[in-house]
Amino acid sequence: MSADDSTTRITNGTIGVGTMGPGSKSFDDLSLNVPVPKPGSVAMLMVGTWMLGVLGHRRRMRGSRRGLR
Asked: Are 15 and 32 in contact (CB under 8 A)?
């Protein structure tokens, strides 16, 4: 495990992992520990989870037909 305790370390932003080429994998084990002050303040986007947004949109549409907002 690696840690950066320097005063110049980046403390906010976006973390991304990518590879080049089909079937290519440049990492073996990746973990991220984030101290979260409030529940729900960290959002994660993973390939293959796009349906969550679609399902959420459909639920909002159904609610609006019933007069719910």
From this structure: yes
pLDDT tens string 50-61: 444 444 444 444
CA–CA dist 30, 7 (Å, integer): 24
Residue whose C-alpha is closest to residue 1's, from 35, 32, 44: 32
Q: Give the Cα separation of 66 and 64 in Å (integer).
A: 5
Please tell me whether the overall predicted TM-score, pTM, comes out greater than 0.90 for this model: no
Type of residue at 23: G
DSSP characters for the chain? ------TTS--SS-------STT----S--------SSTT------TT-HHHHHHHHHHHHHHHHTT--
